[in-house]
Amino acid sequence: MSGMSFKQHVFLGVTLLSSVAVIGASVQSTTVAASKRRGKKVTKVSKTYRTKATKVSHKAYYSLSKTGKTYKLSGTLKKPVLKSNHALKNYTKTTWTRSKQMFVTKKGKTTRYYYVKAAKNKAAGWVKASQLKAGKNGQATTAKKTTAKVYYKNAKSGKIYQLKGKNSYVTFKKGVKLVADQKYTRTQKRTVYKRGKKTTYYYVKSGETKGWVWNGYLTTKAPVVPEPTVSGLTTPGETVDGITSYNVSGNTIDPYKSEDFSTVDVPSDYALARYKYQYSPTYKAKKTLQTKSETLSVVRHTGADSDYALKSTMYLPLDGESTKGINSNPQSATFSKDDHYLYVMYVDKSGKGDDDQMGWVIRYDWQKLTALGTRKNGQMQLIRKAAVNQYHNKATSKDKAILKCIKVGPTFNTGHAQSLALNPRTNELWFVKKHQADDQSTVERLNQKTLKPDAAVNFTLKSGMHMGSVLAFDNDGNAYYWTHTLSAWSTAPLNSAKIYKGQISTDRIHFSLVMQGLSRVPGEVVQSMSYNGANNRLYLVSNGSIFSVPVDKLGQLDASDVSATNFTGDREFEGMMFMHQSNQGFVLTNRGPAILQMTN
């Protein structure tokens, strides 16, 4: 033992072992501390141990968990460390394949974990077996050719999709609605797995439309198309002051029985009572020249489709060239089909009733005004300042560039003016001019260049019934309006909402009552209606409250289909509009006039 006694060797060995233990503890402590500094969530539990990982047969699973995670495993059998690496909520449309298992015991409770890998992007980790369900999800078989066969849309609503990706992970893209009475020729079929269930999809073609559709949406039986019970055909009349009149004789709404009507339930706290309208918080403080955006936050909402706030993105002008404050009462707005222009309809409140109001339309070059920085936070006063300077004959070169983007139309009888809407199918602007005075209603078409009406259609829905005051069109050209029930039916309670669907053109006016409404209106004042082509939903707007429903389920709505949102601010909501080429929605408010954008 050259120069060292046996006892000295033993003492040295014990000392070295203690040092290793201390160093190990120090490294482990340092690693945990470093992980915390990096912000990584590390789950390390005391009195926890695990079994060895063992291979198991490969089996497909899926998960719908919104809170679960997969974990990266480290540590030892006696002190396992699980660090989250993937959130299961991001993988609800893919398949997980297990390959190993282990059991982790914590405080006497044992949990089975599987080692899984996702087909979506090969993400992998350990996951609690209880958060998985057996079966494939988002996977498909190879398409096989079939004998050509003709199908039609059945009673259910459905879409044709493009299936993208490999069989191990397929996604549905660009859904196009099936059209009634149209022939679809099947040429291929394949199996698609969704949440553990096998579904059969057909590849069909109809003109330029082609793609994959669930076979349950198709039938070989040709549909019987009933003739409308009312014609609604127009007869041209005189042209006066550039407006050609058209008239419809007879009723223009299909007969219905009130006992066949029903409503889908909407929670009572989403239906807002009337309130005193408030000004934008900085409107008076900034003497109308507001520079920064403001947000109307969400008070309550029902689901994902309703989880959005409203943030001001453009402050509209108040002053006209020769009249101060003349543009302080906007009533509705809509975008051009290419989203280049925003059309806003105003009234001056000079008429005795809604049908007698005088007003005008201002066309804003949205794209150029955006490029000039008028929507940029910190300089959002630019449009209003340009109008003020023009009124005082002090317009600068910057002001003139902005004013050049704003075209003010002539004054005419607009009616209430809260219905300006674009029919994207025909690229025509329409509004309801007359809807209150008697049984006869009038809709007018607005010329997009002259900003004044060039056609008026006079019609009667039926005796004792006039059209609603709001208007919207879907991408197929169908027209809609909604009303507030003030005279209850046994099937339509007081303060419920009714939705009407039909056609508006210079050739024909025709409407039907959708035989299912909403048990409650969003609010006591009917302010607007709008359609979002990106999600195919209709929006019913009142002050501080917006409801929406899917178009393809009208008449067959479930309570979960109704989206509802209430907002802060006690503001007056004048209109709602969506862009046609992108998924962007906006609300028109007053006090002062502004465009607010929907933000998540």
In terms of topology, how is this protein built?
Elements: H1 6-37, E1 42-44, E2 48-50, E3 54-62, E4 69-75, E5 80-87, E6 96-106, E7 109-118, E8 124-128, E9 133-134, E10 139-140, E11 144-153, E12 159-164, E13 171-177, E14 184-194, E15 197-206, E16 209-214, E17 218-219, E18 234-240, E19 243-251, E20 262-264, E21 295-296, E22 298-301, E23 309-315, E24 330-335, E25 341-347, E26 358-365, H2 366-371, H3 382-391, H4 397-403, E27 406-408, E28 412-413, E29 421-423, E30 428-434, E31 440-446, E32 453-460, E33 472-473, E34 479-484, E35 497-504, E36 509-513, E37 516-518, E38 528-532, E39 537-542, E40 545-550, E41 563-567, E42 573-578, E43 585-589, E44 594-599
Parallel strand pairs: 19-32, 20-37
Antiparallel strand pairs: 1-5, 2-6, 3-6, 3-9, 4-5, 6-7, 7-8, 10-14, 11-14, 11-17, 12-13, 14-15, 15-16, 18-19, 21-23, 22-41, 23-44, 24-25, 25-26, 26-27, 26-28, 29-30, 30-31, 31-32, 33-34, 34-35, 35-36, 38-39, 39-40, 40-41, 42-43, 43-44
Description:
The protein is mostly beta strands and 600 residues long. The protein has 3 domains: 94 residues, no CATH class; 81 residues, SH3 type barrels (Roll); 366 residues, Neuraminidase (6 Propeller), CATH 2.120.10. It is built from 4 helices and 44 strands. The strands form 10 sheets. Strands 2, 3, 6, 7, 8 and 9 form a 6-stranded antiparallel sheet that branches. Strands 10, 11, 14, 15, 16 and 17 form a 6-stranded antiparallel sheet that branches. A 6-stranded mixed sheet has the order 18-19-32-31-30-29, with no helix packed on it. The longest helix is centred in the first third of the chain and has 32 residues. It is globular and about 85 Å long. This is Extracellular protein.
